[in-house]
Amino acid sequence: MTIKRVKRTLADSIKTLAAEKQLFSRNPGKDNTRNRKLPFEKVVAAILSFQGGTLNRELMDFFDLNSASPTTSAFVQQRAKILPAAFESLFHHFTDRICEQKTYNGYRLFAVDGSDLQIAANPQDADSFYPGANGQKSYNLLHINAMYDLLQHIYVDAIIQKSRKTDESAALRLPLIITPKPSTSSPLTKISRKSAVQAHCLRAK
Questions:
Q1: Comparing C-alpha atoms, which of 159, 156, 155, 163 is closest to residue 139?
Q2: How far is residue 70's CA from residue 144's CA, in Å, rounded to a whole number?
Q3: What are phi and psi of 74, to 5 degrees?
Q4: Cβ-contact 202, 175 below 8 angstroms
Q5: Residue 126, SS3?
Q6: Share of the chain above pLDDT 70, in %
Q7: Predicted model pTM
Q8: pLDDT exceeds cutoff 70 at 175
Q9: CA–CA separation, 201 and 195 (whole Å)
Q10: Backbone angles phi, psi at 195, to 5 degrees
Q11: Whole-angstrom Cα distance, residue 14 to residue 8?
Q12: Quick one: 61 exposed, middle or buried, by C-beta within 10 A (0-12, 13-18, 19+)?
C-alpha cells in the first residue's frame, strides 16, 4: 500500500467520523454545530499530527506558521468538546480499510506487548498517580497494551489502562474478541508466551 493511499484513507476516515460528530461530542446538539475556524475534523487532524512539542508550536506547524492560526486557548476549548471515543472509532475505521488480511500458512500473526506512558501529574486520579521519590516530580502513569500485525506492520488494536489497575491478561482477551472472527472450523489454535510478549496465530476467514 502506497503512502498516498494511506493518507487518503486516513482523510476519508476523518470525514466519515466528522459526518457523525454529534455521536462523539461531549454535549450533542450544542457542541460542534457551527462552522468555526477549528471545525471538528480539523481538530482531529491537528491532534493526530502532534509530535510532542508545545501546543503553540504544534499549532504553528499544523497551520504552516499562518498568523491567522487559532490560539492555544481556542484549540483547547474545541478539543474539550470531542469525546475520547472519537479516536477509538477513527482508529478502527481506518485500520479496517488498510488491512490486507495477509497470512502465513493460512494464519494471521499478531504480537501483543505492553508499554508504560508517563503523563502530566493529576493527584485526583489515584489509579494512575505517583507522588515521586528521591527528588523526582510527581506524575501519572498509563499502561498501553497493543496488538501488532507482524505481516502488515500495522497496529490493529490497543487498550489503555491506568497503571495501578493494569491487568495484561484481561487486556489480551479484549483484542482477541474484536479482531476478525475465525470460522468455526478454524478456532484460535496457538498462543505462545515469552516474557511480556505474546504471539498469536489466528486462522484467517
A1: 163
A2: 32
A3: -65, -40
A4: no
A5: coil
A6: 81
A7: 0.74
A8: no
A9: 17
A10: 55, -135
A11: 10
A12: middle
